Amino acid sequence: MASTSTGHRRRAARQVTTTEHLGACLVFPLPQSTMTASSNVVSPYLVVADEPIPKEQKAAVSHSAAAGTVIETVPVTQPSELKPGEALVKLLYSGVCGSSWHQASDHWDEGKGRVPRPLIAGDEGVGTIIAMNDPTTTLKLGQTVGIKFVAHTCNECPACLHGIEMVCPQAKYTGRSVNGTFQQYSLAWTSQLTPIPDMPLELAAPILCAGVTVWRALKDSTAHAGDWVAVAGAGGGLGSLAVQYAKYLGMRVVAIDNERKQAFCREIGADAFVNYKDADFVQQVKKVADGLGVQASILCSNEPSSYLTGTHYLRPTGSAMIVGLPPTGSHVPVDCRNAVLGMHTVRGCFVGNRGDVIDALDVVARGKVVPKVTVKPFSAIQETYDCMKNGTLNGRVVVDLCRH
């Protein structure tokens, strides 16, 4: 079993004073108001772990969709460069999220150059804080934390104040607008770092994007304990967690996927399985769910065709929850008459807020949900993307950033 967060919390810390050197930066006594990273002088609030911090690191870099993702040497942000509210995290594991594959493959870009290159993707990182410049945070040096998809928000706009900071107009997103977690050291904002409870770290990683997204989708749906839910793409990274969280919440689950994933879906707790390639699969789902249909469909698939039928097997008052992000141009068609008479809801689900992540992690830390993960070396990211493309992955892949 991988090291747990308890062991990673035991790191010595030292306060950087006004008479110390930090790298090439000589610190002179100055008025406190001028002592910031932007003035080329180390902040008096900067704390650094008592361990060497290298100048370079390994990272998985994508220069273009055609070139794929390769391991390269890139610079490490140094503690002296940290601005107020920032931290440096030494990453140990990262989940390989379907959104990272889409980003690297330009599935949402349509060739218009919107994906920054070179790209360091990844949005499910777990590691320890080794430097921090924030006197206001309750986080501690050496604490085990998670870097999730939402990297930074303003904390002042209506979205942030109402607990939906993931749609903050000023939000920065890990692996999209800022470098992601497919690297060994990462700059992060303390306000969006997630404390990791005492648990195997390889199980924590996939909760930081996939897990919290399906957790929030289930909580926001119209389904409750005892209700039937259908999970489209149930055998993948998102879908498998949706099945497991739904079972934890007391729901009955119809797993929808291709036939070769039936055994896996049964293993993780699905009550029934339907092959989406069957011509009558919509009728099969309805038949399983008391002949009426499911209370919620959790749409996790990368396959656009899965969304075309997302509302077809709902019972009255049912909700279709759009979780996966298929290529641009995918649709969930809604028959207005059926939607009105059935009182149906169609809703998008965009990760979750800070509280949602903590709740989703707690369920795993208590052993109520055990994510099905395969731990691979850092160099296996492109291989994992290829498996996603072929639809051959069961569960989630997590890469060990210490193994090349």
Major β-sheet profile: 9 strands, mixed
Mean pLDDT: 88
Q: Which band does the percent of strand residues land in?
A: 25-35%
What is the 3D shape? globular
Return the CATH class of the largest domain.
Answer: Alpha Beta
The low-confidence runs, each spanning 5 or more residues with pLDDT under 50, are 1-39
- CATH superfamily label of the largest domain: Medium-chain alcohol dehydrogenases, catalytic domain
CATH architecture term of the largest domain? Alpha-Beta Complex
Number of strands: 21
Q: How would you explain this protein's 3D organization?
A:
By secondary structure, the protein is α/β, with parallel strands linked by helices. It folds into two domains: 46-209 and 353-400, Medium-chain alcohol dehydrogenases, catalytic domain (Quinone Oxidoreductase, Chain A, domain 1); 211-348, NAD(P)-binding Rossmann-like Domain (Rossmann fold, 3-Layer(aba) Sandwich). The chain is built from twelve helices and 21 strands. Strands 1, 4, 7, 8, 9, 12, 13, 20 and 21 form a nine-stranded mixed β-sheet that branches. It has a six-stranded parallel β-sheet with strand order 16-15-14-17-18-19, with helices on both faces. A two-stranded antiparallel ribbon has the order 2-3. Helix 5 (210-220) crosses helix 6 (237-248) and helix 5 (210-220) packs across helix 11 (354-365). It is globular. Belongs to the zinc-containing alcohol dehydrogenase family. Residues 68-399 form the Enoyl reductase (ER) domain.
